[in-house]
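ARCHIVE CARD
CATEGORY: sequence design from structure
SOURCE FIELD: tokenized fold
FIELD CONTENT:
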């Protein structure tokens, strides 16, 4: 590959220190990271460097006003050991949609994709071999302008680091439908992967945890009635053999896993609806015995089964997880496509272009 990316390899790898059979989510980082800078109106200084700390000015704009966005994506290995990416262009498009909403410069898609290929190629030994595990990739951009007036920054950093991860949720999650706090309103930044969305979710989530729930089922900001997301995931309901997911109405993140699941389901002939779904409808379905499954989807979690939902002190217990056949089927499909034991008829898998010799 004739690259615009300057590569400086780390003098030694930490990969041998990792216990791939027991990886906590988000605490282990691989040897290298990609870095770029935007200044004087353009992106440059594309490089892959040893993973390490950043140095930033105390007035760094992102720290004060939250001009910061990110992506989450995964690289896996085929059963015969080839490093693979999953829908990288879609992540490039989404980070640029987030950038637009936060008045940040778009990052060139070709450099994004090349950086991912090079980084995963260099750190391919960090991709866990076990099904359900992956190398998590964290592209992100933040305003590093040194100024505390409120306006878009005149300089930005774009970085990608990676780390091996196991499943995000080790067990089914319980949800509390939240009637006071909101995640996002139409016209806000809920559709963007903006750092501040996640900061705003922390207090309500801690309060839900104190009541014994794992995550929040977010309801809409206006009527506190329409289901939006579950924690950091998109949300799916199976009612009477129909799979329903809240429509992307401007307040919901357009999840790439969400899109992946919708394609698989429609291709297999399931009845799928993207539409507004109220928490009352969920409650009525539960009372009628037609609420078969609920699950969340996201890059980190892939699919997280939901075992119970509480709304207005009414606890809805879902059928036993073994009976959540659609969630199980989808998980097996996504994992199978990602290790190439299932044919990728959608063209989502992109083999890493080259492994750079150590
Ligand atoms: C992802 O699924 O990649 C997410 O963005 C969730 C993350 C905040 C852990």
């Amino acid at each position: 590959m004739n690259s615009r990316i300057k590569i400086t390899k780390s003098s030694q790898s930490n990969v041998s220190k990792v216990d791939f059979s027991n990886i906590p989510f988000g605490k282990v980082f691989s040897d290298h990271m990609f870095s770029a800078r935007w200044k004087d109106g353009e992106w440059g200084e594309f490089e892959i460097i040893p993973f390490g700390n950043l140095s930033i000015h105390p007035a760094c704009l992102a720290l004060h006003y939250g001009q910061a966005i990110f992506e989450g994506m995964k690289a896996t290995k085929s059963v015969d050991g080839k490093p693979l990416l999953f829908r990288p262009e879609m992540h490039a498009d989404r980070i640029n949609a987030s950038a637009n909403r936060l008045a940040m410069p778009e990052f060139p898609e070709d450099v994004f994709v090349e950086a991912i290929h090079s980084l995963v190629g260099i750190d391919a030994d960090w991709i866990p071999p076990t099904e359900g595990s992956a190398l998590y990739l964290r592209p992100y951009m933040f305003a590093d302008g040194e100024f505390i007036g409120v306006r878009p920054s005149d300089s930005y950093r774009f970085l990608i680091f990676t780390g091996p991860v196991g499943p995000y949720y080790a067990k089914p999650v319980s949800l509390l439908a939240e009637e006071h706090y909101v995640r996002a309103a139409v016209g806000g930044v809920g559709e963007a992967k903006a750092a501040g969305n996640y900061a705003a979710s922390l207090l309500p989530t801690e309060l839900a945890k104190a009541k014994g729930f794992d995550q929040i089922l977010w309801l809409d900001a206006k009527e506190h009635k329409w289901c939006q997301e579950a924690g950091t995931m998109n949300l799916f309901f199976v009612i009477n053999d129909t799979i329903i997911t809240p429509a992307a109405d401007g307040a919901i993140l357009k999840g790439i896993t969400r899109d992946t699941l919708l394609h698989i389901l429609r291709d297999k002939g399931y009845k799928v609806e993207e539409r507004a779904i109220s928490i009352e409808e969920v409650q009525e379905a539960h009372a009628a015995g037609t609420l078969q499954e609920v699950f969340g989807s996201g890059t980190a979690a892939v699919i997280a089964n939901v075992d119970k939902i509480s709304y207005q002190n009414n606890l809805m217990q879902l059928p036993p997880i073994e009976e959540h056949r659609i969630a199980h089927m989808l998980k097996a499909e996504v994992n199978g496509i990602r290790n190439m034991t299932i044919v990728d008829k959608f063209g989502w898998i992109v083999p890493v272009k080259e492994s750079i010799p150590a």
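CARD ANNOTATION: Helices lie at 61-65, 88-101, 109-122, 195-210, 256-267, 279-288, 325-338. Residues 72, 198, 232, 298-300 surround 2-OXO-4-methylpentanoic acid (CB under 6 Å).
SHELF: design records, drawer C
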